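If your schedule permits, I should be very grateful for your opinion on a structural question. The matter concerns a single protein, recorded as an amino acid sequence and a row of backbone structure tokens. Could you please explain, in whatever detail you think fit, how the structure tokens follow from the sequence? I set the record out below, with my sincere thanks for your time.

——
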Amino acid sequence: MEIIHETILELDLNKLANNFNYLKSKLNSDTKIIAVVKAYAYGHGDIVIANSLEKLGAHALWVADFEEGTRIRKSGVKIPIIIANSGTKSTQQIIENKLDIVIYNFELLHLYGKLDKEIRIHIKFNTGMNRYGFDPSVVDELIADLQRYPKLKIQSICSHLAASDNSTEDGFTNEQFHIFEKVSSSFSKGVNQFIDRHILNTSGVLRFPKREYEMVRLGIGLYGVNNDNNLHQVSTLKSVLSQVRAIKKGSKVGYDASFLAKEDMIIGIIPFGYADGLNRKLSVKNGVIIVQNIPCPIIGKISMDSCMINLKGITAKTGDEVVIFGEENTISSIANKLSTIPYEILSSLNRRIKRVYSC
């Protein structure tokens, strides 16, 4: 396929498969995998990724809202698609597209229950993160209300770990497990059937394998962003030098004349800026772009649609390839420079960037 876009996000589906299978190898053979593809599959492009994960054997997909779920369902995906936050105005789309929903408060329970339609639901409990979820103290009231709505088909009980990747908070994480197991047991007894449970994310699978229960939710690890060396980053973000410019000592570069050349320089201009997802703080946080395997510092303030780099020591020309992130300048290393998390880097990537898949 001829590539006509200057900036592309290359996605290696073989690496996606290897990451999926590696994480699967950490689980019991009958543990079900829910693959998280919310936020445009963490910026990777949800349609191709969702269909690939279905073929790899994912039991279900997890998305943020009904729009994400509807788009993926209409692409041909057959496995369950779970909506984490269905909201109150999307009931018709949920039903028409056969989407599962997470029920985390009584308002949602009564809204969907009174529709008198068969809907697959997942009950979420708050075990300490204090975001979404029923508090364990209301489990008896919840069970009583569920009995009023026999067409709501309970598929699982879930919760969310707040710090599974942070060993200094393992005491808190273990307390979450304790609360989850206790409320899950009470709930299953109350509804008189065993209900599948899930609380582990990628870090949870790698650090707390005895808590996998019947299901797990795999997200960032599928895309290869984790400290485990067996997981490999799926994505490489590339662009080109759209102009190469010689400037004199004393010249200024970028908005606010923010960079002053201390010597004669060769600089490169790249058609990729903060509107595309290049965090503007990299202007002053030692951001680099890779050219000919050499890290080139970003100079001047990053613009909306472009940035400039120092090409010192490199013989480069217009049209040469550059790597914004990849194996040499990883998403995790960029996140560390920005004192943020890889999730933010990936989910900030503009959809105007062409996604190119290989396998």
About this structure: The first strand starts at residue 8 and ends at 12. The chain has two domains: 13-223, 235-329. The chain has eleven helices and 19 strands.
